[in-house]
């Protein structure tokens, strides 16, 4: 049972990258899957999330309009298409999945704001995104 993150790399400002988060050993059904990022010397922050229960989507203000999250249900994979990258997007990106409690919809706060004490169900390994000016 694991999450596999991929797609990081180095690009110039204005470039694009697509991150992928693939689940193996479990289904994303009834989960929220999201991307957090952590830049050197900064706190981990929520970037974008999608609910496989109702399709709700969250984007942080810093990426809204530039990043697009999507789900390929057949592949049990979540993608984060990142365009218009800036040096401020440089960070290690982590995908995270957490099962929603029965009856809950939308994107929980723990995906909008990283909660260090919360036991998220699954973490992928980080993938480094470096944007040069």
- Anisotropy-based shape: globular
**Helix-strand topology string:** EEEEEEEEEHEE
Rounded average pLDDT: 96
Oligomer: single chain
Q: pLDDT below 50 for ≥5 consecutive residues: which ranges?
A: none
Proportion of residues in extended strands: over 45%
Number of H- or I-type helical stretches: 1
CA radius of gyration is 14 Å
Work out the helicity level.
under 10%
Biggest sheet, in brief? Answer: 7 strands, mixed
Helix and strand composition category: mainly beta
Question: Distance between the terminal alpha carbons, to the nearest Å?
Answer: 38 Å
Describe the 3D structure.
With 133 residues, this protein is mainly beta. 3% of the residues lie in helices and 48% in strands. The chain has one helix and eleven strands, in the order E-E-E-E-E-E-E-E-E-H-E-E. Strand 5 (45-51) and strand 6 form a beta hairpin. The longest helix is centred in the last third of the chain and has 4 residues, at 109-112. The model has no long low-confidence stretch (mean pLDDT 96).
């Amino acid at each position: 049972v694991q999450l596999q993150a991929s797609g990081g790399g180095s690009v110039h400002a204005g470039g694009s990258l697509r991150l992928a988060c693939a689940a193996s050993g479990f289904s994303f059904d009834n989960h929220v899957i999201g991307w957090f990022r952590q830049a050197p010397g900064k706190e981990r922050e929520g970037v974008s999330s999608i609910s496989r229960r109702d399709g709700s989507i969250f984007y942080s203000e810093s990426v809204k309009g530039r990043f697009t999250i999507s789900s390929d249900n057949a592949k049990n994979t979540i993608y984060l298409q990142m365009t218009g990258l800036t040096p401020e997007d440089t960070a290690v990106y982590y995908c995270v999945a957490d099962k929603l409690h029965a009856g809950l919809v939308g994107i929980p706060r723990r995906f909008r704001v990283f909660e260090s004490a919360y036991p998220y169900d699954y973490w992928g390994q980080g993938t480094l995104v470096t944007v040069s000016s």
